[in-house]
Amino acid sequence: MIELKNICKSFDDAMVIKDLSLVIEKENFVSIVGKSGSGKTTLLNMIGTLDFPDSGIISVDNINISKFSQREIAEYRNRKIGFVFQSFFLEPSFDVFHNVAVPLYISGEKDIQKRVEEVLKLVGMNDYIKKKVSKLSGGEQQRVCIARAIVNNPEIILADEPCGNLDSTNSAIIIDLLKTLAENGKKVVLVTHDMDDARKSERIVTLGDGMIMSDELL
Amino acid sequence: MMKLVLNEIKVTKGILILFTCILVLIIPISLVFSTVAFNCLQATDDIVKEETLQNELAFDISNAGSKTIAFLDTLDCESVSYTFDFKKKFDREVSCFVGDTAINDVLAIVNLNDKISKELKDERLLKGYSFFNFDNSADDYISVWINKKTSIKYGIDIADVINIKNDEKNLSLQVKGIYSDVSGIPSMFVSFDSANSIFKHFGVSIKKSVTITEKTYTDARRLSSELKKQGINYSSTVFEMVDDYFQYYYMFFSVLLTLSFMIMSISLIMFFTYSRLIQFKRKYYINMLLVLGMSRIRIAVIYFIILEILIIVTSIVSTGVIGIFYGYISEMVSGIFELEIYNFSFAYETIIYTIFVMSFFVFLGILNLYIKLKKINEIETLRGN
Ligand SMILES: Nc1ncnc2c1ncn2[C@@H]1O[C@H](COP(=O)(O)OP(=O)(O)O)[C@@H](O)[C@H]1O
Ligand SMILES: [Mg+2]
After folding, report:
1. How is the beta sheet containing A81-85 ordered, strand by strand?
2. Where would a tag sit more exposed on chain B, N or C end, judged by fewer CB atoms within 10 A?
3. Stated pTM of the model
């Protein structure tokens, strides 16, 4: 369960999130939509401890994540959260295997080979395991990212416009992948400005001016 | 973790190769300096050290008529020194000794046994001693030399057999020569090899070591260097006067060690540069690690390990290379500084010194990296893409 209570966040005097409260409990696939600059990324970053609210409480499974120590933050990011970004955020000098394996190296997992192969199969990238990520297409890179995001078996996937750099065919693949993950019990929070993508989820939260404009169950 | 280190070595190998080249220049020079320094330190190290006799091991020495005349005290059994005394049980007045205050005599006898060697001609070694009644015939026994006093006191003559006993074993020594000395104390000498055999016979493991006693520091050093040439380590050097040479050594030691430290500190700039390069070139990657849940301290440790591997490998390789050429290098250094360093050997402690100092500098460089890591804002980097 992800619970945001009276969250405020401002950058340089500009209030980006204004007293926002949101609970994500039953739905496994939630989209956050809204105009550019409406604070979607900021919201997602705060759930992922990449950023912290000025006031208000964010709790995940009833644990207040705003109070985390550095070590707890690291542990939380590594184990509990899987990040997928628009810009992929892969290490270009590594091959697919090593990129996917990084979270496992960090957590000190033992059976790395097996686990990486498993998730790569899941995203349909197991034939590219030895390939440099810089040689892959955007869609393929994003699939590698998803593999990396789920390799440590996190409960929550935070995807910030994962299809922003992709064509419609690849976008469909990525959204379907996220949908599958949600069906398999992961909590997926998808930030997008594409309403067609958003409609594939179970719930659409629309942000505007740092506030929730509408909250719609599908 | 190790996997991340290896990956990172692979990715940053350009920088690492460049730094290895610099280290290959810095480390050997500082190694040579610190080695000479450590030699000097060793030279000043063995200042008067009163040996206490521990765990005395007594041997009975009896003459042919099995009359006990003395027994042998040795140092601690683990590291028995050649500084041992033959002492008569319960009667210290008639104690005999071997070596101790007169290691020169031992040397002289060894040299005499090895026919007349160069050292024998050295007046210093023979001053106050004359050799007579020299018998080189029978080789059935381990040979012993006794002084005139011993000969008269116990009625022992050339070719007589002396028995050394303890509770279990018995060993015969044959008097091969009698010498006179100035001391007037009954004494006996055996060669180092013979002493070795004696100890072996009685099942005592010994380290070859002697205590050197000389008037001045320089003399003591010269003697210890002669012993070293013969493969005998000295356990301590006793001298009465600290002469100029001693102070010279001491000064030289500090100067050289400082020099070596200064040369190594060039690497400090290098390690800071490394930290800057990593911040610049690997910013994106480091940020990725942070987002994926790696703590800053562990990221810093990755780079610390990489630099540690680098300096340990280069130090060991440099040490090996210098070890091989050390003979030439030491001659060159001695020549340049017109310094006669006795026992000028390659001191392997220097590699530890080097690695220690370098590690300290690496630590400073990485600390800098760590502090800078703390200032990284993950979101800024994410937005930057
Ligand atoms: N680190 C930051 N520093 C300053 N302003 C920021 C920062 N991050 C976001 N903002 C501002 O906050 C607002 C919301 O940004 P963001 O959450 O990225 O919106 P969205 O993802 O909906 O486009 C924008 O006006 C943006 O300029
Ligand atoms: Mg955004």
Report:
1. A81-85, A156-160, A187-191, A29-34, A203-208, A211-217
2. C
3. 0.68
